Amino acid sequence: MSTPFLSIRDLRVHFGTEDGVVKAVDGLSFDLEKGRTLGIVGESGSGKSVTNLAVLGLHDPRNTKLDGEILLDGKELITASEREMEQLRGNKMSMIFQDALASLSPYHTIGAQIGETYRKHTGASKRVARARAIEMLRRVGIPQPDMRVDDYPHQFSGGMRQRAMIAMALVCDPELLIADEPTTALDVTVQAQIMDLLKDLQQEFGTAIIFITHDLGVIADIADDVLVMYGGRCVEKGTKQEVLRTPEHPYTLGLLGSMPSLDGPVDVPLSPIPGAPPSLLNPPSGCRFHPRCTFAEKVPGDLCSTEQPALKLTDGRGSACHLTPEQKRELFADYATARTN
Amino acid sequence: MLRFLVRRIIGAAVILVIISAIVFVLFYAAPRDPARIACGKACTPETLELVRKNLGIADPLPVQYFDWLKGIFVGRDYTSFGHCHAPCLGYSFQSRESVLSTIADRFPTTLSLSLGSSVIYLIFGIGAGMLAAVKQGKAVDKIASSASLIASSMQIYVVGVLATYLLVDQWHLLDRASYTPFTDNPAAWAKGLLVPWIVLSLIWTANYTRMTRSQMVEALSEDYVRTARAKGMSRRTVFFRFAWRGAMGPIVTIFGLDLGVLLGGAIITESTFSLQGLGMLSVKAVSTNDLPMLLGVVMVAAAAIVVFNIIVDGVYAFIDPRVRLA
């Protein structure tokens, strides 16, 4: 069996703070193949962004401790030197961020920012890099790229800025693209355009994409596989169809329940998940979701509050929950009927 | 750009006129009569009236002010000095010398003092601030931060006297403060100003260290700095090309204003080292009720600040494209 393109094993990201150790990511594993898109879903503070900053090595080494294994094309990234990481960033793997206006330098032109990535990794001349920047802008659908290349980010609209950011991330044809909520700040039509663009580019270059979002609608559009994170851990994993159609974890079910449905009856109230995301400084005992879980009492004894459920996977599909498959079928079906009737 | 410049220059002129009017009013609000001082002890009412006329302060205040303004733009005539060409700032009550030539005479001292110490404090202040920002939280940062806190709370008249005593009198390392024109002898110019430069820049270095550090720390936490790292830019590139670019705007602004203030006369430094610059001139003008001289010095100081304000705005637009196009 060949090793997957990106393989993360038992990743732990711990921050030292004045109040103690924050376990932002606590034992996360997943694989990603080229040409596939993995959607990572979770609330704020579930560890999804932290995981991906760790992949790029952009965490703050002064207070962050990384453990586990991150293998990119067989290369271990956690132990890699800063110089090696610099060679990889923007070249073999790159990232696009949520707030394109804040994430692009206000002091440099769009063309210079795209071009310098290219020059850094290919050693191309300024002229060649500029031509490449124009080509990239054209490819991401910026009209009149040879004029706009000398504009500054504040002269671009929100959607164009995000396109420019994608152009910058893709200028060296990376094999791994991490998109951290790239469409959250955009309106829906622009959001759809950006996602189509990502899909097209992926088809063209076979890029592996990690798409971080809290929006299940976006996941339904773009992802092949879905990983649901809660409190720094993976609580459910599977293909998009599996996770969205037949969720196995009460948290995923809760996420789906808090989304309005277009084809369901309109007068059904949304059911938000009660409570707040867990503190990662003092995570709840046992299953981290149990204080907010509707089904915790269905599990015999106090298993949910004492024992952390293991993530049981068969062929990449599974969840971390103490409920038995039979219980889930029964309880989740009731829940679904209650929502649709 | 041209429209911006014209608008700013008109604004600056208005400000300067207002400042001069305020100085005029304030001067006469003080319960002292320059004529009586000039006239001396044995002074009859007749002589006093004569002195008053001679000094040009017999007329009502608005007339005096208008004459003064007129002198600047078209020149004016004096009974005792004849015609004074524009720009005419009048003649000192005290020395009877032309105000403009006195200022022109003193300005090089102040200019040398300000520019020399600016170079020193910019180099060391920005350097130390950057170092502290890179080594955030480490020993270097803590030393730089506490040293600058101590230095910025020192006073020039204390440090200046102490430095002269130790460096000049006790250890014979440096020369006593003096001013030799640069054009006469550059080496003597630098040697004579070294102690004042060091003392004046010590406190300013401390301020610039703290300011640079905080600006850099803030800039380093910007999203675009993280993006630059995500593109594979090295720490050094990120630090200088991105973070420093963001931090230098506010530093340039403050520097421009500070330099404007210094050029108006570093009063305490000049007094401490007995350097005959604009600062000393203004102290003397105040203590001798020398209105024309005082007005002249104040106008130069105000003009320096106003001009550097305009320069700063121009430079800022150059640094930050968002300002340029707004």
Structural account:
Chain A: This is ABC transporter ATP-binding protein. Chain A: One of its GO terms (molecular function) is ATP binding. The complex is a heterodimer of chains A (341) and B (326). Chain A has 341 residues and is of the alpha/beta class. Among the domains of chain A are: 100-173, no CATH class; 250-340, no CATH class. Chain A is 36% helix and 22% strand. Chain A has 13 helices and 12 strands. In chain A, strands 6-7-8-3-9-10-12-11 form an 8-stranded mixed beta sheet, with helices on both faces. In chain A, strands 2-1-4-5 form a 4-stranded antiparallel beta sheet, covered by helices on one side. The radius of gyration of chain A is 21 Å and the shape is globular. The mean pLDDT of chain B is 89. Chain B is 75% helix and 2% strand. Chain B has a two-stranded antiparallel ribbon. In chain B, α1 (2-29) packs antiparallel against α13 and α5 runs antiparallel to α6 (139-152). Chain B has 2 domains: 2-84, no CATH class; 109-324, MetI-like (MetI-like fold, Orthogonal Bundle). Chain B has 14 helices and 2 strands. The radius of gyration of chain B is 24 Å and the shape is globular. Chain B is mainly alpha-helical and 326 residues long. Chains A and B meet through α2 and α4 of A and α9 and α10 of B.
Quick take:
The complex is a heterodimer of chains A (341) and B (326). Chain A is an alpha/beta fold.
Q: How do the helices and strands line up, and which of them pair or pack?
A:
The complex is a heterodimer of chains A (341) and B (326).
Chain A: E1 6-17, E2 20-32, E3 37-41, H1 48-56, E4 64-72, E5 75-76, H2 82-88, E6 93-96, H3 100-103, H4 110-122, H5 126-139, H6 145-148, H7 158-170, E7 176-180, H8 188-205, E8 208-213, H9 216-222, E9 225-230, E10 233-239, H10 240-245, H11 250-257, H12 303-306, E11 312-314, E12 317-319, H13 325-340
Parallel strand pairs in A: 3-8, 3-9, 6-7, 7-8
Antiparallel strand pairs in A: 1-2, 1-4, 4-5, 9-10, 10-12, 11-12
Helix pairs in contact in A: 4-5, 4-7, 5-7, 7-8
Chain B: H1 2-29, H2 34-39, H3 45-55, H4 61-74, E1 76-78, E2 82-84, H5 99-134, H6 139-152, H7 156-170, H8 186-220, H9 223-230, H10 235-263, H11 267-273, H12 278-287, H13 291-319, H14 321-324
Antiparallel strand pairs in B: 1-2
Helix pairs in contact in B: 1-13, 5-6, 5-8, 5-10, 6-8, 7-8, 7-11, 8-10, 9-10, 10-13, 11-12, 12-13
